[in-house]
Design a protein that fits this description.
This protein has 99 residues and is an alpha+beta fold. It has a single domain, classed as Winged helix-like DNA-binding domain superfamily/Winged helix DNA-binding domain (Arc Repressor Mutant, subunit A). 59% of the residues lie in helices and 14% in strands.
């Protein structure tokens, strides 16, 4: 799993998204649906900020989700993403052990 996580972070766009999601209120517009601290940021806002096609942005988010770095919440037709801080902390501890 550690290698998959390292690969997931080995892309500038994905690293940027992870940084933005660290402080969602500072990096994304206010959402109509939910509080970004609770449910996360809507995929539409992420896609617009990375300035990529919806399919490319979704692909990046899926890689981060498979690595465990993001959790998703689905509300109607909208998908919201937020950081999984427990997995991020575990990853950094495991990386430190391995190196």
């Amino acid at each position: 799993m550690l290698l998959e996580q390292i690969k997931a972070l080995g892309n500038d766009t994905r690293m940027q998204v992870m940084e933005w999601l660290k402080q969602p209120r500072d990096n994304f517009p206010q959402q109509d649906h939910e509080d970004p601290e609770g449910v996360g940021i809507c995929m539409t806002h992420i896609q617009q900020k990375v300035e990529l096609s919806a399919s490319t942005a979704s692909s990046h988010m899926a890689i981060l989700q498979r690595a465990g770095f993001l959790t998703t919440t689905r509300i109607g037709k909208w998908t919201y993403f937020r950081r999984n801080e427990q997995v991020i902390q575990s990853f950094t501890q495991n990386l430190q052990k391995e190196l």
